[in-house]
Design a protein that fits this description.
The chain is α+β, with helices and mostly antiparallel strands and 184 residues long. It has two domains: 101 residues, N-terminal domain of the delta subunit of the F1F0-ATP synthase (Peroxidase, domain 1, Orthogonal Bundle); 71 residues, no CATH class. Helices cover 59% and strands 14% of the residues. It is built from eight helices and four strands. The longest helix is centred in the first third of the chain and has 17 residues. The N and C termini lie far apart (54 Å).
């Protein structure tokens, strides 16, 4: 059984590992990955869906039925829909964000790549993402899967996190550093 740096130690990690092994064995890693990305996007955009996953007031049956309907409307693959049903039945929907992160890490390790969490002030286009991936690959020595986040609060520049390493070239951080230096 693959441990991948302690992922298995957490509850979300155990669920992610189970989903990963099912998807790998049935050769559905890409479709499950795309479905989980859709779920992640839905969680970020829908307060109702987010409330469903975190509310202790929603019963197992209601959560399972709602997750099934959401899975069908989002056109998720059957393995991911069934997996979300299991999370609902076990009252573990609150862990879906952590499960998605752990699954993504497992897939990256399986493909021989590393994952970089990149935060920008504005969305990047496909050419910029490709150039950034090439630049990170030359520094890391492995293929790099980029997980993009947009945070206007950084004003400009990038924040890149690869494993425990953080590269912060955001304008906000530079301004804060300059302000600290001026205070003496």
């Amino acid at each position: 059984m693959e441990n991948s740096g302690g992922i298995q130690a957490s509850l979300a990690g155990r669920y992610a590992l189970a989903l990963f092994e099912l998807a790998r064995d049935s050769k559905q890693l890409d479709s499950v990955g795309k479905s989980l990305a859709t779920v992640k996007e839905a969680l970020e955009q829908s307060e109702d869906f987010q409330a469903l996953t975190t509310s202790p007031l929603v019963g197992r049956d209601a959560a399972a039925a709602t997750v099934k309907a959401v899975g069908e409307s989002l056109k998720l693959d059957s393995l991911t829909r069934n997996f979300l049903g299991v999370l609902a039945e076990n009252r573990r929907l609150a862990h879906i964000g952590s499960v998605i992160r752990a699954f993504t890490l497992l897939v990256s390790n399986h493909k021989g790549e590393t994952t970089a969490e990149v935060t920008t002030a504005h969305p990047l286009d496909a050419a910029q993402v490709k150039a950034l991936a090439a630049q990170l690959k030359s520094g890391v020595g492995r293929d790099v899967a980029i997980e993009l986040k947009v945070d206007p609060e950084i004003l400009g520049g990038l924040k890149v996190k690869i494993g425990s390493q953080m590269i912060d070239s955001s304008i906000r951080t530079r301004l804060n550093t300059l302000a600290q230096a001026m205070k003496g």
